[in-house]
Write a structure and sequence with these properties.
Layout lengths: L1 E6 L2 H11 L6 E6 L9 E2 L7 H11 L3 E4 L2 H6 L1 H7 L4 E2 L3 H8 L1 H11 L6 E4 L2 H11 L3 E5 L8 E2 L4 H13 L10 E5 L4 E10 L3 E3 L4 E2 L2 E3 L3 E4 L4 E4 L8 H18 L5 E11 L2 E8 L7 H7 L4 H9 L14 E9 L15 H5 L4 E5 L2 E4 L2 E4 L3 E9 L2 H14 L5 E2 L6 H7 L2
Parallel strand pairs: 1-2, 1-4, 2-3, 4-5
Antiparallel strand pairs: 6-9, 7-8, 7-9, 10-11, 10-16, 12-15, 13-14, 15-18, 16-17, 18-22, 18-23, 19-22, 20-21
Helix pairs in contact: 1-10
Bound molecules: adenosine monophosphate and glycine (GLY).
């Protein structure tokens, strides 16, 4: 088969790496790719949001399956465009992608279906927000309605911080029209996990559990980011998997079908494991980045027929198998991330790191300049490892991560630490 992957991050590098292993694969393309992906797939210089150009490319090359990594092309309607032209693609249509594209849509759907989530109100003005915040008490969670690259959530702890947050949303308009409606919600306490599954409109194939570390600094301090590390298994789920399927994922997929927004693609529930059980923080309609990297390293199936059958409307597989071994991913970023990362510094040590046992290095924001690999954005590389236990996988990732260098490299040093401490292993 000829396959096109859309995107250029660590998640897409891991997707290409996994699809490469399929005996069914004949040709692999990636648009727009990055230098790491270009070693295993043909790079196509079309940006991920140029959905018409991408469809032209897929039609010209008679691509058998397109797999979409990031959310933006999905919310722009890439799947509708491909389907209208008879081109097979795995992902949700624009109206189904609203589950991520509009948090108001997602929250209202959950409220209607009785799906457990934080109590909330929708505010249209600064005053609405102040009133709702007074009802919920501090800390209170404020979210923009639309996409904000994982950065549209603020959690003021007092009145002063609330005023500062209102300024960002309504005066500076930092998030543009994404913040015309603000969701004010109750702040949930507990452990956060990512529960990611594949859907064909009706059936749900849960992936293994993963945990992502969203804050920039150790001990969950600093600003929210796209994610600074992840591991699988999550190690904190206990027996909640069945409850998550029955109370959250199945009713969501059913409600989407009833609303004529049948959900095909990756359904990612960001959850808080609270004292009252799992509650939804958000839905995403694509694989998490960096969660995809450890997940795809553990997946013990040929991914290509899974995605191709889902795109055709019905999975061939009743369930997906994952290896027993654990996997981990440490994100190497550049100083200044997430606001204004330093760019252009040469990177050394990748080859030596890759020779270590169980290691894969997936590229994100890298570029080549004068034949030299340089850091070219916020999240630069993903150093991933598998190992017999979570402790081994994390240790291997950190040993390899230390071998890779550039002057502004930053990373978290505590990925997985709390989970290991709690497990006592
Ligand atoms: P979201 O983009 O909705 O996942 O929010 C980003 C991050 O903000 C989440 O990963 C949580 O860490 C935090 N967050 C979002 N909603 C809540 C909530 N209701 N209570 C506590 N933390 C939250
Ligand atoms: N790592 C979180 C996300 O992909 O949304």
């Amino acid at each position: 088969m000829k396959v096109l992957v859309i995107g250029s991050g660590g998640r897409e590098h891991a997707l290409c790496w996994k699809l490469r292993q399929s005996p069914l694969l004949k040709e692999l393309y990636c648009a727009p790719a990055n230098p790491g992906i270009a070693q295993i797939a043909d790079p196509v210089p079309i940006p991920a949001d140029e959905i018409h150009q991408l469809a032209d490319f897929a039609a010209d090359l008679k691509i058998d399956l397109t797999v979409v990594g990031p959310e933006l092309p999905l919310t722009l309607g890439i799947v509708d465009e491909f389907i209208s032209r008879g081109l097979p693609i795995f992902g949700p249509r624009r109206q189904a992608a609203e589950l991520e594209g509009s948090k108001v849509f997602a929250k209202e759907l959950m409220r209607r279906q009785g799906i457990p989530t934080a109590n909330f109100e929708i505010a249209h003005s600064e005053d609405d927000v102040r009133k709702a915040a007074a009802r919920f008490g501090f800390p209170v969670v404020l979210k923009t309605d639309g996409l904000a690259a994982g950065k549209g959530v603020l959690i003021p702890k007092n009145a002063e911080q609330l005023e500062a947050a209102l300024k960002t949303f309504f005066e500076e308009r930092r998030f543009g029209t994404a913040a015309e409606k603000v969701i004010v919600e109750e702040c949930l306490q507990g452990e956060e996990i990512s529960f990611i599954s594949l859907c064909d409109g009706e059936h749900i194939l849960p992936l293994a559990t993963t945990k992502d570390y969203k804050r920039l600094l150790d001990d969950d301090r600093g600003p929210n980011t796209g994610g600074m590390g992840a591991h699988s298994p999550a190690g904190v789920l206990g027996g909640a998997g069945g409850e998550i399927l029955d109370r959250i994922l199945r009713p969501t997929v059913r409600a989407m079908e009833e609303a004529n927004r049948s959900f095909v693609g990756v359904l990612y529930a960001g959850l808080m494991l609270t004292q009252e059980g799992p509650k939804v923080l958000e839905f995403n309609v694509r694989l998490g980045d960096p969660e995809a990297q450890p997940l795809l390293m553990r997946l013990d199936e040929d991914l290509l027929p899974v995605l191709a059958s889902g795109a055709a409307g019905r999975f061939e597989h009743p369930r997906l198998r994952f290896r027993k071994e654990a996997t981990a991913c440490i994100v190497l970023a550049s100083e200044g991330y997430p606001e204004k990362p330093t760019k252009g510094e040469p990177i050394t040590g990748i080859e030596a790191a890759m020779q270590q046992e169980g290691i894969e290095v997936f590229h994100a924001a890298t570029a080549t300049k004068d034949d030299q690999l340089v850091a070219a954005g916020g999240r630069v590389l993903n150093v991933c490892a598998s190992g017999p236990t979570l402790r081994d996988a994390l240790k291997r990732s950190y040993t390899a991560a230390a071998m890779i260098r550039w002057p502004s490299k930053i990373m978290r040093h505590d990925i997985g630490r709390r989970v290991l401490n709690r497990a006592g292993g």
